[in-house]
C-alpha cells in the first residue's frame, strides 16, 4: 500500500514520512478512528514505507521485494492480529487467509463485515489471551529481514482484559526494532494502561470534497448522486462505497421511509406492525442501509427547514417528498429521531431481535412525529 493510494490524510502521511526519515518512529502507536476513515490503509502505507529498501522523499518505491510482500500481506516480519469467534478459532492464524482476502479486497472493511465473512451465526469476535501469547511468541523470534518486526493489531478495542494485560510489558519494553501498531475505533474500550503506553494517532473522518473526488476517480460516480452519497457517508469511504453498491435499493428505502412516516402519523397500528414484520425479513446489511437512509432524510429535512434549500442534497424524488414532510422534523423532535435511528443501527450490528427492534421504531416514530 503506497501513501499515494490512501485517500486523504495528507498531514498524517507527511508526519509518518518525517518520522521514518528522522529515525524517530514510536515503538507503539494507536491509530484511532472508524475503519471507513482509512486507518488500516494508512497503517499499511506506513509499514510499507518503514520497510521499503528504496523509499523516496514522498513514498515507498512499491517495487522492491519488501514492498511487494507488504502489499500482499505476506512479509515475514509483519504479524497481524484481529478478533475471532473463539468457538471457531482461538487465534488469528487459524483464519488469517480468510481475513487477508477480505482486507485485500476492501482495506476499509469494518468489524461487522468481518463477522459476516467469518461466522454465519453472527457471534461477537474478540482478541483473547491465546492471541496475546502468539504475539509475544512471534516477537521473541529474530527478524527474518534483519530490520523491524511489526505487530499490527486490527480492532484492538476488541481485546479482552486478560489479553490486554498480557501485552502490557512487551508494549512498554518491546524487543529491539519492534513496532506495535494498534488500530481501534473506540478509545473508551481500550484499556487505559494500553493507552498510556501508545502514541495516539487520530484518524479523522474524510471531508466531503475528498470523498467526492474518490467517488469520481475510483467509481466513476459524479453529479447529484455523488453529493447525495457524500451527505450520508458520515466521512466514511466504506459507507460511500456500500451505498454505491446498493444504489438499486435507494428507491426501495425511500418508499419504506415514506410508508413508515405515513402509517405512524396516522397511528395505524396494524399497518405499523406489518411494516415492522417486512423490515425484519430483510438481511442485516439492508436493514442498516435503511437506518442510515432514515438518518439522511432527517438531516435533509433540517437542511430544507433552516437553510432555504442551500445545503439540501437530495434527488428530485426526495426533494418532492421533503417539500411536504420536512415540517414534521423540528427542534422538538430531531434529537429523538437521530438517537432512535443511530441506536437502532448500533443494535442491528449487534444482532438485536429484528422484529422487536423495528416494532419499537414504529411506536417511537409515532410519538416523535406528533411532537413537531
State the fourth-level CATH superfamily of the largest domain.
P-loop containing nucleotide triphosphate hydrolases
Element string (H = helix, E = strand): HEHHEHHHEHEHEHHHHHHHHH
SS field, number of helical segments: 17
Q: Write down the overall geometry.
A: globular
Order of strands side by side in the largest beta sheet? 2-3-4-1-5
Number of domains: 2
Unreliable runs: none
- Strand elements, count: 5
Which architecture of the largest domain per CATH? 3-Layer(aba) Sandwich
Distance between the termini: 50 Å
CATH topology of the largest domain: Rossmann fold
Radius of gyration over alpha carbons? 23 Å
Indicate the percent of residues in helices. 40-55%
- The CATH class label of the largest domain is Alpha Beta
The biggest beta sheet reads: 5 strands, parallel
Textual characterization of the structure:
By secondary structure, the protein is α/β, with parallel strands linked by helices. The protein folds into two domains: 3-202, Rossmann fold, CATH 3.40.50.300; 246-369. The chain is built from 17 helices and five strands. It has helices at residues 10-21, 39-51, 65-71, 96-105, 111-118, 129-139, 161-172, 192-195, 208-219, 223-233, 237-245, 250-265, 269-280, 284-306, 316-325, 334-349, 354-369, and strands spanning 28-32, 78-81, 149-154, 178-184, 199-202. α7 (161-172) links the parallel β3 and β4 (178-184). α1 (10-21) runs parallel beside α2 (39-51) and α12 packs across α14. It is globular.
Amino acid at each position: 500500500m503506497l501513501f499515494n493510494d490512501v485517500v486523504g490524510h495528507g498531514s498524517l502521511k507527511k508526519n509518518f514520512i518525517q518520522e521514518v526519515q528522522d529515525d524517530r518512529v514510536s515503538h507503539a502507536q494507536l491509530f484511532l478512528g472508524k475503519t471507513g476513515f482509512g486507518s488500516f490503509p494508512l497503517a499499511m502505507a506506513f509499514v510499507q514505507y518503514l520497510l521499503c529498501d528504496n523509499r523516496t522523499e514522498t513514498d515507498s518505491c512499491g517495487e522492491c521485494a519488501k514492498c511487494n510482500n507488504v502489499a500482499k500481506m505476506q512479509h515475514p516480519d509483519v504479524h497481524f492480529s484481529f478478533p475471532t469467534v473463539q468457538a471457531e478459532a482461538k487465534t488469528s492464524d487459524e483464519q488469517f487467509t480468510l481475513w487477508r482476502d477480505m482486507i485485500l479486497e476492501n482495506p476499509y472493511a469494518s468489524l461487522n463485515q468481518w463477522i459476516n465473512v467469518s461466522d454465519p451465526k453472527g457471534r461477537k469476535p474478540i482478541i483473547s489471551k491465546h492471541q496475546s501469547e502468539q504475539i509475544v511468541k512471534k516477537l521473541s523470534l529474530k527478524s527474518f529481514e534483519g530490520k523491524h518486526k511489526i505487530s499490527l493489531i486490527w480492532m484492538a478495542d476488541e481485546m479482552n482484559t486478560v489479553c490486554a494485560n498480557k501485552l502490557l510489558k512487551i508494549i512498554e519494553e518491546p524487543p529491539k526494532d519492534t513496532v506495535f501498531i494498534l488500530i481501534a475505533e473506540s478509545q473508551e474500550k481500550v484499556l487505559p494502561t494500553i493507552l498510556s503506553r501508545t502514541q495516539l494517532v487520530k484518524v479523522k473522518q474524510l471531508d466531503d470534497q475528498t470523498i467526492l473526488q474518490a467517488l469520481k476517480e475510483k467509481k466513476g460516480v459524479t453529479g447529484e448522486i455523488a453529493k447525495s452519497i457524500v451527505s450520508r457517508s458520515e466521512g466514511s469511504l466504506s459507507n460511500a462505497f456500500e451505498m454505491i453498491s446498493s444504489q438499486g435499493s435507494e428507491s426501495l428505502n425511500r418508499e419504506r421511509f415514506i410508508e413508515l412516516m405515513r402509517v405512524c402519523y396516522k397511528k395505524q397500528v396494524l399497518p405499523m406492525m406489518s411494516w415492522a414484520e417486512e423490515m425484519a425479513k430483510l438481511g442485516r446489511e439492508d436493514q442498516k442501509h435503511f437506518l442510515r437512509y432514515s438518518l439522511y432524510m432527517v438531516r435533509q429535512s433540517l437542511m430544507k427547514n433552516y437553510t432555504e434549500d442551500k445545503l439540501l442534497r437530495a434527488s428530485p424524488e426526495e426533494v418532492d417528498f421533503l417539500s411536504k414532510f420536512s415540517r414534521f422534523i423540528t427542534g422538538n423532535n430531531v434529537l429523538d429521531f437521530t438517537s432512535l435511528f443511530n441506536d437502532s443501527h448500533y443494535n442491528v450490528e449487534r444482532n438485536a431481535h429484528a422484529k422487536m427492534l423495528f416494532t419499537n421504531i414504529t411506536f417511537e416514530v409515532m410519538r416523535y412525529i406528533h411532537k413537531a
